[in-house]
Amino acid sequence: MMKSFKAVLFDLDGTLLDTLKDLALSMNRVLEKNGFPTHPEKKYRYFVGEGASMLVRRAVPDGIRSDKKALARLHQEFLEDYAQNWDKNTRLYPGIDQMLDELSRKGLKLAILSNKPHDFTKLCVERFLDSWHFDMVLGDRPGVPRKPDPAGALEVADFFNIPRDSFLYLGDTSIDMTTATRAGMFPVGVLWGFRDRQELEDSGARAIISVPLQLLEIFE
Questions:
Q1: Which is nearest to 152 in space by CA: 133, 126, 171?
Q2: What is the pTM of this model?
Q3: How far is the C-alpha of 20 from the C-alpha of 154, rounded, in Å?
């Protein structure tokens, strides 16, 4: 498969960075503090992906999910804990550095679009991805719908003034594949992240890669 692209739009968590342990530990500390059951780390693969507020909603007991006041408090407690612990275990996935080196060498425009809160998204990029230039880094911001709404992806395309079909979108969940499709971009799923091949295929991935450098095989 050979395509011509001018830009790559990346998801962050589960695609460039393995953030799962820090997210799980922070949420579990909040749950434990409030007397709620905690969850094994692997369950968080399906709790994360749609923003911090949705992570909290999925992690709390059923009876709490309709209590808006409690959810807001727990959300704030999670953000406060994560602010102190967001980089304790987070790391680049193996091979991401070589992939970004090659994409940069090709002169491609690079951008990041995450459902992680915007400030944390920027922190993660500054801390772990500062060796590469990303022209745009966007997280979850007030007034902008989260993925899979394509608004953020379209904002990136407009910023670059590059046709949407000249973007390759790399992500690890159905949310990413749906976002890419709705934005008119080329969705590529990764198998090293939080979800599995079946989910990626079912949600419209047009290519799936198992190691980062395989991405280069898609480019002309």
A1: 171
A2: 0.95
A3: 27
d(CA 198, CA 80): 35
185 neighbors 71 (Cβ within 8 angstroms): no
Domains observed in the chain: 7-18+90-218 (3.40.50.1000), 20-85 (1.10.150.240)
For 4, residues 6+ apart whose C-beta sits below 8 A from its C-beta are 166, 219, 220
Burial degree of 68 (CB within 10 A; 0-12, 13-18, 19+): exposed
CA 52 to chain centre: 12
**Confidence category of residue 83, pLDDT binned at 50, 70, 90:** very high
Decide: helix, strand or coil at residue 190.
Answer: strand
51-61 pLDDT, tens per residue?
999 999 999 99
pLDDT at 130 over 90: yes
**What type of residue sits at position 84?**
Q
- Per residue in 138-182, pLDDT tens? 999 999 999 999 999 999 999 999 999 999 999 999 999 999 999
Q: Cis bond leading into 37, ω under 30°?
A: no
Instruction: Tell me the C-alpha distance between 186 and 163, whole Å.
Output: 11
Residues 6+ apart with CB under 8 A from 139: 12, 114, 115, 116, 117, 118, 119, 120, 121, 122
For tokens 């980089």, the residue is 87
- What are the strands of the beta sheet with 186-190, ordered from one edge? 136-140, 109-117, 7-10, 167-171, 186-190, 207-209
- Locate 22 and state its tokens: 């820090």
